Amino acid sequence: MQRALVGVILVFVMVCTSLPTPSEGAQKKETTSPQPIRFGTLPVLQALPLFVAADKGYFKERGLSVEITTFNSAMEKDVAISAGQLAGYFGDLQTPAVLVANKVPVRMVATIYNTTGKQRMFAILASPKRSASSLQEVADAGLAGSSNTILEYLAVKILRARNVPAEKLKLVEIKSIPIRLQMLLSDQVPGALLPEPLVTLAEQKGAKVLADDAGLGLSATVLAFSDAFLKAYPAQTREFLAAVEQASLYINKNPDAVRPIMNRQCKVPETLQQSFPIPLFPKLTVPEQSQVMDVYRWLREKKIIKTDLRYTQMVADGFLP
């Protein structure tokens, strides 16, 4: 559960406060470039520009030494940023709020992806044996997901966007996404919330998409840095974001050229590696205040966060290229 994550983060914060952060030396004497900038991410589609920027040498072209570190779980990544082992990270809107509320000073600087266009990133599916079920029926019968996480937030928002009362949502706790997929396909759960490309894979195996986040602008993913790094290396932060934006433009213009990178780094299932559409990436923007605060209010309602926070405590402006 998310509360367990908060506990783990707090323990690591207390244990690791004496560890050097990427910018401690810079506070004494500012340098032109930290060596290297360790940036954490997950092997997901929305992070593709990070992998392309590294592969195409865009960071090096801007005088940056960047180490993209891929974690197998969000918890591992969150613990690493809490322990001062990362300069920054890729993630959802929820984690920065939880970290800041627990006195881990990080701030979001850019939105790298959001589902404002036609392409979905998350969907609610019915199992192959319940393909005739409605969205309401599946929500009432049991939707596999993960409580107190951004996935529960998305499930609630997607249901409400389809005029389905989210108050009666029966969430079946299955945190592992691969296990959630297998339980959906074997009809051990009536429905599930899954990310792409597993949504497409589940469809191929007979599951039915009942609703998704395409066009809703709900599924923002962001780039965040520690406050210490932002204060010590503002110019390097801007160059980092410029390299990521350069990679996004390259992806949009050369989708076939980045397919091998996507297949390798974003863990695309083998059956989809030649057919899954390459996402289109927008220009980097500052995380939208209304969306950040909506996630924050949901966290407060769930009592995951008990601290009053302002938008400017979670988001830093002025670093976009």
Structure description:
The chain is α/β, with parallel strands linked by helices and 321 residues long. It has 2 domains: 2-14 and 35-114 and 220-314, Periplasmic binding protein-like II (D-Maltodextrin-Binding Protein, domain 2, 3-Layer(aba) Sandwich); 122-212, Periplasmic binding protein-like II (D-Maltodextrin-Binding Protein, domain 2, 3-Layer(aba) Sandwich), CATH 3.40.190. The protein contains 15 helices and 10 strands. It has helices at residues 2-16, 24-28, 48-55, 58-61, 74-82, 94-101, 135-141, 150-161, 177-185, 198-204, 227-232, 234-253, 255-265, 289-301, 311-314; strands spanning 37-41, 66-70, 88-92, 106-113, 122-126, 143-145, 171-173, 191-195, 208-212, 221-226. The strands form 2 sheets. It has a 5-stranded mixed sheet with strand order 2-1-3-10-4, with helices on both faces. Strand 6, helix 8 and strand 7 form a beta-alpha-beta unit. The longest helix is centred in the last third of the chain and has 20 residues, at 234-253. It is globular, with a radius of gyration of 20 Å. Residues 1-31 have low confidence and may be disordered.
Gist of the model:
The chain has 15 helices and ten strands. The chain is globular, with a radius of gyration of 20 Å.
Features:
five-stranded mixed β-sheet; globular; 321 residues; D-Maltodextrin-Binding Protein, domain 2; 10 strands; disordered N terminus; alpha/beta
